[in-house]
TrEMBL record:
It is found in: Cytoplasm. It catalyses: tRNA(Pro) + L-proline + ATP = L-prolyl-tRNA(Pro) + AMP + diphosphate. InterPro entries: aa-tRNA-synt_IIb, aa-tRNA-synth_II, aa-tRNA-synth_II/BPL/LPL, Anticodon-bd, Anticodon-bd_dom_sf, Pro-tRNA-ligase_IIa, Pro-tRNA-synth_IIa_bac-type, Pro-tRNA-Synthase_IIa_type1. One of its GO terms (molecular function) is transferase activity. Belongs to the class-II aminoacyl-tRNA synthetase family. ProS type 1 subfamily. Its main location: cytoplasm. This is Proline--tRNA ligase. The keyword Aminoacyl-tRNA synthetase applies. It is an enzyme of class 6 (ligase). The lineage of its organism: Bacteria, Bacillati, Bacillota, Bacilli, Bacillales. Consists of three domains: the N-terminal catalytic domain, the editing domain and the C-terminal anticodon-binding domain.
């Protein structure tokens, strides 16, 4: 491509309102532009990188027999009502009405759509397993869109969904997908860890996040270099198991918990008295509620409340603050006591054991009619505690370190969470109707681009790894008015294209300084400068990442790239 014919609006200054290194550099180097909060346009270079990332993902998906589809972003509310997520998903779901006043959502995720699609088509175990993926824009009205592409409101996701007749089949696909994800992030050159993401309903082995280690990450992971153990610290408790009867709830009933605003409202909804919730403390956390377990023998000053009461986020809530807020909500409260070693599950899981209410380990859901000791073994919480830096890893093989991580991928087993309420069933080999077992697997494609951009840059610009670089070679004739330089550049440009190299030719009538600054900003791995020595057939070849330069004859260059 000729630079005069494409669109690369580079900036000399760092944009003041860009809050992450990747965001700043993507703007400066002319890869993206912001349209409005959390919404971006990809310019030609950004689009090329995005496509490279997509292609790596596609190849690895195809390697594990995941097949590409394309599902609608515009989704009728009825689908989301079937699973209850229309009510529980909250304000992150973008909703709209058509001219007939029918309600719709813009796809934040596609479990409902794909489950409804398959339930009408796949009726026999003989047609399972099936693993489908798509690459598509997702819409989430994030409370705080920020860091550019890292947390957008419209963003590109690869999402895959697998359908199975047996748990063994789901296990096998889950392992394949985990391996595919490892391959993808390795090929992208990212420094990442696969971490246990949830110790919830079906166990930590069934839910993993892929985290890129980065100071800008919004999650904290606990890991060790000498042990395979790694976990999101939200979930990094030791010895956690789930209520015994979750797989076969008897009287327990899972109910969607809508957006209650106060403790009294939550309590009323759960059929408990506010007083019963005192010991459980219902915390308002962003838009979700978290209930934490209180056993009455701990000092609240010790507790780490990550998102407490909406007043502080990621800070400790003091006993006094909690008590004041509780008092304001439900009247006078006696001394508040909480265990020092129990965490608040803000976004995902909610756990409690209070007179018949239990967290369902799923945002927006609770179990009611729970019988402590029968459905929950209280003892299992005795060992519940946070992992700390310097602890031995649970497998005893290493020492725990903490690091910030960017969640670039997430794989988990859904089981029948969607197929059951949506009555998506197949006939098994005995002719019995069973809900599909499902897995789902996401990668934030545009977030991955930003994570790579975060990692591969220096002060002057990007240093794209070849796997995702917008072009492989940047041809820079210093003076387009010089016939020898121009002709040699045109000759190389043509040859390189013939060899199927992706090459960008800086044919602009700009000064050398401008061209070099732009070339460094854009960050193509190899720069070939055609300058004064063009008359001797000599070119300067520069490795953008290492800064090494070589003077090569035209023939030598061509030999090397043939
Ligand atoms: P986060 O915890 O960062 O909000 P999530 O857990 O809500 O992410 P998932 O529902 O697991 O996200 O979606 C799959 C993947 O989509 C994530 O692992 C992440 O890479 C990407 N993703 C999620 N939200 C965004 C966003 N707002 N902008 C860009 N990518 C996103
Ligand atoms: Mg999210
Ligand atoms: Mg997450
Ligand atoms: Mg996730």
């Amino acid at each position: 491509m000729r630079q005069t014919l494409t669109f690369i609006p580079t900036l000399r200054e760092t944009p003041a309102d860009a809050d992450a290194k990747s965001h700043q550099m993507l703007l400066r180097a002319g890869f993206i532009r912001q349209n409005t909060s959390g919404v971006y346009s990809f310019l030609p270079l950004g689009k090329r990188v995005l496509q490279k990332v997509e292609e790596i993902i596609r190849e690895e998906m195809q390697n594990v027999n995941s097949v590409e589809v394309f599902l609608p972003a515009l989704q009728q509310a009825e689908l989301w009502q079937e699973t209850g997520r229309w009510y529980s998903y909250g304000p992150e779901l973008m909703r709209l009405r058509d001219r007939h006043d029918r309600e719709f959502a813009l796809g934040a995720t596609h479990e409902e759509v794909i489950t409804s699609l398959l339930r009408d088509e796949i009726k026999s175990y003989k047609k399972l397993p099936l693993n489908l993926f798509q690459i598509q824009s997702k819409f989430r009205d994030e409370k705080r869109p920020r860091f550019g592409l890292l947390r957008g409101r419209e963003f590109l996701m690869k999402d895959a969904y697998s359908f199975h007749a047996t748990p063994e089949s789901l296990d096998a696909t889950y392992e394949d997908m985990r391996q595919a994800y490892t391959n993808i992030f390795t090929r992208l050159g990212l420094n990442f860890r696969a971490v246990i993401a949830d110790s919830g309903a079906i166990g930590g082995k069934d839910n993993h996040e892929f985290m890129v280690l980065s100071d800008i990450g919004e999650d904290i992971i606990a890991y060790s270099d000498s042990s395979p153990y790694a976990a999101n610290i939200e979930m990094a408790e030791v010895n956690v198991t789930y209520p015994k009867s979750v797989e076969s709830p008897k009287a327990m009933e899972k109910v969607a918990t809508p957006d209650q605003k106060t403790i009294s409202e939550v309590a009323a909804f759960l059929g408990a008295s506010p007083e019963q919730c005192i010991k459980t403390l219902v915390f308002k956390a962003d838009d979700a509620y978290a209930i934490i377990l209180a056993r009455g023998d701990h000092d609240i000053n010790d507790i780490k409340v990550k998102h407490a009461l909406g007043v502080k986020t990621a800070e400790l809530a003091s006993a006094e603050e909690v008590q004041n807020l509780l008092s304001a909500e439900i009247g006078s409260v006696g001394p508040v006591q909480l265990p020092s070693d129990v965490k608040v599950y803000a976004d995902h899981a909610v756990k409690s054991i209070v007179n018949g209410i239990a967290g369902a380990n799923e945002t927006g859901y609770h179990f009611i009619n729970v019988t402590p000791e029968q459905d929950f073994s209280i003892d299992q919480y005795a060992d519940l505690r946070f992992i700390q830096e310097g602890d031995a890893s649970p497998d005893g093989q290493g020492i725990i370190q903490f690091a910030k991580g960017i969640e670039v991928g997430h794989v988990f087993k859904l089981g029948t969470t969607y197929s059951e309420p949506m009555e998506a069933t197949f006939l098994n080999d005995q002719g019995k109707a069973k809900p599909y077992l499902m897995g789902c697997y996401g990668i934030g494609v545009s977030r991955v681009l930003a994570a790579v951009a975060e990692q591969f840059q220096d002060d002057a610009g990007f240093q794209w790894p070849i796997a995702v670089a917008p072009y492989a070679i940047h041809l820079v004739p210093i003076n387009m008015k010089d016939d020898t330089q121009r002709e040699l550049a045109e000759d190389l440009y043509k040859l390189m294209k013939d060899y199927r190299y992706e090459v960008l030719l800086d044919d602009r009538p700009e000064r050398a300084g401008v061209k070099f600054a732009d070339a460094d900003l854009i960050g193509i791995p190899v720069r070939v400068t055609i300058g004064k020595r063009a008359s001797e057939g000599i070119l300067e070849v520069k490795n953008r990442r290492t800064g090494e330069t070589f003077e090569w004859q035209r023939e030598e260059l061509l030999d090397r790239i043939q």
